[in-house]
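so the lab meeting is tmrw and i was supposed to have these ready like two days ago... anyway. pasting both below. for each one the top line is the aa sequence and the line under it is the structure tokens. i havent really looked at them closely yet so no promises
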Amino acid sequence: MKWLNHTLIAGAICAVLSPPHVAACVAGATAPDWFEYVAKLTGRHIKHRGPTHILTHWLIAALAFTFVWDYHGILMAFAWGGVSHIMTDAMTVSGVPFSPYSDRRFHLFGGRFRTGDPVEYAIAAGVVIACIGFSHLTGSGGFAPFFYDWSGLYQQGSIDGAEWKANRFRLI
């Protein structure tokens, strides 16, 4: 998948679950690719979708940061962003390595499309729309910097009628 779709999917899901962690999650959603560039700068050449794209490594990191130790959830969000990257790359024809001890590739839904296909953008759009819909249905009780409740702010008296009228149809 392209970076745009990785960031859209991870950012939308994280915005629904934990809005303050969106930046860390989006950074993690692109990390498996930019880790390759970091390795190249240190003189170590690794191929794309190689050691940085191993599903078990990202999953173990995400579970460890979720249940064992983390500082304010930042590393947890970063690791789950990496897991989302691996899962979305697994939908492509080339797939991702499941484990460093196996040469087999892991595919989701049969690995039906190539990177850059219109299906990739449709999946990202579907996830974003579903997350926006879910956020509006659940009416999150906390502060969500990306999804404002304009009618609620108007009813509380936090904004005036002109501001409500200007923003009432904005979803984001």
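ok protien two:
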Amino acid sequence: MESSNSMEFLFNMAEQTLSNTTSRLGVVRQEYIHETHQLNQLHDYEKEYQQKLQHTLTNTGISVISLQCYQGFIGSLRQIVTQQEHKVLNSRGIVNDVLLEWKKNQQNLKAYEILKKRSDNQRFLKESRLEQKMMDEFARRAASKRKNRW
């Protein structure tokens, strides 16, 4: 019986661990999606700003100071894009790590489930044998009493 309780405890712990990891996986995936969305927005903004500069240069012309301001801003924007790309890569790495942990926890849960089923089957078999033994003993005594009466 103690073995059955131990298996139940281990199974429940594995189930809780998997549940926690599943929740964490959802959170890190959402963070990854958010970081990727921000990167896409930055790329769009950079492209839009480049087009605006190109349009201004070809259609109306631009002063040297304005050109330097545009180029400085675009340089700063590229640095921000690079930082965001690093965030996305880091976030993707975290998702992959948590996903591996989730898979490991899922395998552990399945292993404990199998062990728990085996333990339950062994307990059931023991109980069945004990019950059969008691019934055989009861039948033997009843037969012995009938034999003694005749």
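from a quick look at the 2nd one: The domain at 2-121 is CATH 1.10.287.1700 (Helix Hairpins). The chain has one domain: 2-121. will dig more after coffe
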